[in-house]
């Protein structure tokens, strides 16, 4: 292989490895979030029972329990938002991988001599190009969703 092809192949492997590592980190974080959800749920159930069952409890104790319950809800909402962001990132990684694969296929067809291409080759090249445009549009939609979410949080 010429040097530029080796360089492209190395860069592609590095990008693929980065996507894989990022996907693993996201998966670990999603699992951590799930465990934290369960813990928050259990704490919330305990607090709700305390609030419902304790009629003779001083008002300041009930207020403290209510504040703790509100804090748990706020923390759960924050985790849900993070989980949503991570799911969008997972979709983005999948689309990146799909785009890379389509790009590789398209390069194979485009590197062929035009005079040697069959009508099937040209049709396949066109189909890959259409699929590539669809993937790029999907990625654009995800970026738009992330931007809207970021702006709404501000």
From TrEMBL:
BMERB domain: residues covered: 13-154
Molecular function GO labels: monooxygenase activity
Entry keyword annotation includes Iron-sulfur: no
Pfam families to which the protein is assigned, alphabetical: bMERB_dom
Coiled-coil ranges from the UniProt annotation: 23-50
InterPro entries xrefs: bMERB_dom (IPR022735), F-actin_Monoox_Mical (IPR050540)
Record flagged with keyword Membrane: yes
Superkingdom of this protein's organism: Eukaryota
UniProt keyword annotations, A-Z: Coiled coil, Membrane, Monooxygenase, Oxidoreductase
Primary location class: membrane
Location of this chain's protein in the cell: Membrane
Stated name of the protein: MICA1 monooxygenase
Species assigned in the record: Pygoscelis papua (Gentoo penguin)
Gene, per the UniProt record: Mical1
